Amino acid sequence: MATETPSSCTGSSLLQPISEIINLPLDQVNFVVCQLFALVMALWFRLYLHPSKTSTFVRHVVATLLGFYLALFCFGWYSLHFLVQSGLSYSIMIFTGAEHMHKYCFVVALGYLTFCQITRVYVFDYGMYSADFTGPMMVITQKITSLAFEIHDVVSPRGSVGDSHLWTWLSSCRRMPSLLEYLSYNCNFMGILAGPTCSYNDYIAFIEGTAYQLKRFESSSKENGKCKQMDPSPKKDVIHKLCTCAVSLLVYLSVFRICPVERNIEDSFIANTPFHLQVGYLYLSMLATRPKYYFVWTLADAINNAAGFGFNGYNKDGTPRWDLISNLRILDIEFATSFKMFLDNWNIQTALWLKRVCYERCPYNPTAATFLLSAIWHGVYPGYYLTFFTGILMTMAARAIRHNVRQHFLGSASLKLLYDVITWAGTQLAICYTVVPFVLLAVGPSLKFYSSWYFCIHIICIVLMVVLPVKPRHLRAKEPSDTPADSTRDTDSNCSQKRKAS
Fold first, then answer.
1. What percent of the chain has pLDDT over 90?
2. Intervals of the chain under pLDDT 50
3. What is the pTM of this model?
4. Is 272 exposed, middle or buried (0-12, 13-18, 19+ CB in 10 A)?
5. What is the pLDDT of residue 402?
6. Domain residue limits, the chain
7. Using a CB cutoff of 8 Å and minimum separation of 24, what contacts does 358-366 make?
8. Residues forming the active site
């Protein structure tokens, strides 16, 4: 319903009439309108505040002020938490040595985020799940910790974690950012509402206008000299992403209400529906929830591209790539044939953040630690922890199957096709089964769903982990890992590009 209590929308009520007309919550209407306003401002920012026309100081100031304006409109005075979180972390960076800076920033930023999530959920309104002020804080937490780890790794002699962490040295900060640069990086209008996370150096290169020059240098060895344009236009990519947003929103608004996830736990549905139809409905209901994320993340990517941020070099045919900070690949998600492939293409920048700050640095059980950190970062709803605990079992079982079964289906094209079809169906079922608590949030409904399935997939995963042998970790070091943070092969294009440049 569009009618809300005062506690469920902390921002402006200017758009309340529109909210009532289209029957959507006011906080969601505010969010979409602010993102559309940010899209217009992004075009203006790229054309009229281009680095060739104005100073970096002005670009930082405008980006920051517009960001705080959007935050105030959507979240009211709760947006002051963004300043408090950033200010505390910046103070730690200034007054703490590089050897321990990353640890303190990590604890303070994540701790403050968790404190705000606890008060929002358990003090004010347990069910207020749509647009809320802790959403931007999640992205700010990623930026704060990423920057702190980058500075630590390049300044501290013991900061390096091995050859696999070469990206840190290549993308590390040239100097300590000023307060204005820090606030601009954390709270700029392109990413204040929905992200995505980006490298500090990439953002500074965009503000200073050097990003195109760096990418042109990296692409100078491409064929036929096709990569000579200094300032490629993002027009084509922005239009394509906006069309994707329109389709995603249309699908979500039309299908989600027809196939609500809550029907999976209705007593009448469980009692009167054959199991195979329950499986089919589970897939359709979870499929209907994904376009919401497609819309939000693709629109955020389009806003950054419209501002000129996100250029990632050129394709082989000389066309520009604008996927530097893209957060998903929709076709790869919907046609994923493994748990890893799905996770590699879903919330890409968060997966990279988890890999960099946790998986590569954790000496014991990095997979479990990464899933736990992801649960803590997402919030305090019990459903998150049920989802990520199940995700650990799914990851380990998928790894066991891949190591013991896959090689038997590579002998012919027909066998490979059969394997792909079976693994696609298994992957989609596993994902749907895993994320139901993520949508239901509470313990009771989540356990009711799993009980209606007799915890069968949990049991299957445990049996597979016990029965099927898995190679020791040191033997799997050269293989892609099946964790939500291991997106390096396809998604961390920064790393390969910067190695070429170096």
1. 62
2. 1-7, 126, 129, 159-172, 221-229, 480-502
3. 0.86
4. exposed
5. 87
6. 6-209, 337-473+482-502
7. 358/485, 359/481, 359/483, 359/485, 359/486, 360/161, 360/162, 360/164, 360/165, 361/161, 366/483
8. 347, 378
